[in-house]
Amino acid sequence: MSLRLGIPSGRKAIEERVDGELFDLVTRLTNEIDWYMRERRLTRVDLAHRMGVSPGRISQILSGGENLTLRTLAGVAAALDARFDIELKPGQPVSEPQPAPDPTAAVRENAPAPRPIRNPRRVSTH
Description:
Elements: H1 9-39, H2 44-51, H3 55-63, H4 70-79, H5 105-110
């Protein structure tokens, strides 16, 4: 979660959703890369060699602690001779900020119901 001062509450809610989505994406991507490598019996050292980077850099990528760039992900995919399959699905709708509750609503709810009008006279225009 990130702390951003001076952001209106509606914007803050969106920023929190973005942070959550980013965390989820990075986690899913790194889990997928780990799984793919295990299935093919590749180590982080193997991936580092194929990408031309240090094993420490691979640890940074797969730790999930950084904002992965598309270039980095493309490099991983190329080194693994693989492709990412991307799908964008509808999520939960973003709810608009709700207005504050009306403090007089409870008073009105407990008030007696108005009396029904009995047999109102109909005025005929004929």
